[in-house]
Amino acid sequence: MSSQDEQFPAAAPEPAAPSADDGMTWWYRWLCRIAGVVGGVSCAFAGLWNCVTINPLNIAAGVWMMLNAFVLFLCEAPFCCQFIEFANAVSARADRLRSWQKAAFYCGMAVVPVMLSLTLTTLFGNAIAFATGVLYGLSALGKKGDAISYARIHQQQKQMDEEKLTGSLEGQA
């Protein structure tokens, strides 16, 4: 160790806290995490079952599904991967992603095995992983507005439409 390393010890990376501005409530964040873990379990079992064949496309889809399960466990439940040194770093990086990025990533991962081999095993095995992506996608849309603001917007649009209609009628006369 050099003298410079002794003077400035490396700071341990702090786990990244999920951003408070993503609009997700605590229970919805846990729902997404649980769906990710359950999706990982379903991908792992269905992928293993899919590999028990002689069809090479089924084997490729099964291997991809097991890779999906590993990625889902790594991103959503790093405590399941304690034996992997970089699990917490990957999970922290995944937590910093925006919801729409996670949605696109998870849905894209779930579609590939179905495109490789369209069987019931791949469809049902990837359904929950795809649903996890859909949950993250819904959270990216944001919260629903209240009825009062929708009524105001509707009233303003109605007034603008009436003004345009009366303006065009006056121009024709």
UniProtKB/TrEMBL annotation:
Any Pfam family the entry gives: Cg6151-P
Transmembrane feature ranges: 30-49, 61-84, 105-136
Keywords per UniProt: Membrane, Transmembrane, Transmembrane helix
Compartment(s) where it occurs, according to its Swiss-Prot or TrEMBL record: Endomembrane system
InterPro entries: TVP18/Ca-channel_flower
SMART domains in alphabetical order: Cg6151-P
Membrane-related topology note: Multi-pass membrane protein
GO cellular component terms, semicolon-separated: endomembrane system; membrane
One BP term from GO: vesicle-mediated transport
Family affiliation: Belongs to the calcium channel flower family.
Name of the featured protein: FLOWR protein
